[in-house]
Amino acid sequence: MGPAEVSTPWPISIAQLFLIYSGLFFAALVFSLLINSLFMRFARNLGIREKDQLIERWSASSSHAGGIGFFIVFLTCFTLHGVLFPSEGAGTLRPELLGLLAATALGFLMGLADDAYNTRPVLKFLVQLACGALLIASGTCIELFESHSANVVLTLFWVVGMMNSINMLDNMDAVSTVASISILAAGILTMLATGMQDPAFMVLLVGSMASLSGFLFFNWNPSRMFMGDTGSQFLGVLIAFVGIRLFWNGHGPTGAWEPARQVLAPIIVFLLPIADTTTVSINRMLRGKSPFVGGRDHTTHHLSYLGLSDGQVALTFIGIGLLNTFLAYVIFRYIEIWQNLHTAIFVSYALLVFGTLFIITRRSSPPAT
After folding, report:
1. Which of 46, 64, 97, 350 is 20 to 30 A away from residue 56, measured at CA?
2. Does an H or E element contain 197, and which?
3. pTM of whole model > 0.85?
4. Which of 188, 214, 242, 199 is nearest to 80 (CA)?
5. What is 311-367 written as a DSSP string?
6. For residue 257, what are the contacts with CB-CB under 8 A and spacing of at least 6?
């Protein structure tokens, strides 16, 4: 189920809500800049792994502590909701949000341990499954099939997949950050489009997007800070939650059950991490290698092999992310009844983006050394 529309006992105009959310974004942005500046000073070596590294970084970075800032801002926003909307009642104490808090905390701690000690992949996978189980137990589960067991399996696959996709995409300056920002922005616009303006969800999404925007200042090429596994594992859980509540379980204006809309909406919004992870996995398996062994063969790397600078690669992902966000808004705001034509259009777009990135990886190669 998606987030329920929450009304406050005291009237709030649209203008007042805009001021609250824009003020929250600005405050979280400044807070993110401040705490990341502090981490730049005394956490330069946190998470640097010299041996058995699963993710190859495209460029050197002075610090891998950006993810700690994400979690600090997230916890702050979790608390601030009660201050901004004091008369809402349960607010963030609802089961689904408490489950999100527990799952993101577990993902954050796993990522922190992985950055510091390079934990075993099996342990990491089990923790990722536990994060998915926490979301399911607290009421966040994909509702696509009649079989609850099938929905549970799909949900676990989705959560684990997103946690690994964001981790794998964090291989070049700013790329994973801008992809995550576009997903959170799509979530906010979808809530506005459907009228599901749940203040608790909005506070967490606006604050998290501001946190990533502040981090982007340090993560833009030439990067001075990466999010590390600490950030990617936390973000993976968060955006997986957003995908389930707002897209997998989202409904059009009529509220009818439309499986095609349910499947295509998350594919469009999450197209960048899905396309990169799928492309890398296919190419590595064709070469007889494990998809989980690091390498400079991501879609981002191959765009660079074509002659794009690191900044231009990030801008390319920003452009695709913005288009995906716009299409998500169209899906939930302007398409009242889903028809086969809509399925054909959005499937064609997804295949076009995926096919283009996949062909680039097959046609380009690293420069000779």
Report:
1. 350
2. none
3. yes
4. 199
5. HHHHHHHHHHHHHHHHHHHHHHHT-SS--HHHHHHHHHHHHHHHHHHHHHHHH--PP
6. 251
Burial of 7 (0-12, 13-18, 19+ CB in 10 A): exposed
**Residue 182 structure tokens:** 């576009």
205-223 as b/e: b if 16+ CB within 10 A? bbbbbbbbbbbbebbbbeb
CA 363 to chain CA centroid, Å, is: 29
Structural contact between residues 246 and 261, judged by C-beta atoms closer than 8 angstroms: no
DSSP output for 140-193: -----SS-HHHHHHHHHHHHHHHHHHHHHHTTSTTHHHHHHHHHHHHHHHHHHH
Residue with tokens 């796993």, as numbered in its chain: 110
Vertex 187: Cα angle to 248 and 72 (nearest 5): 115
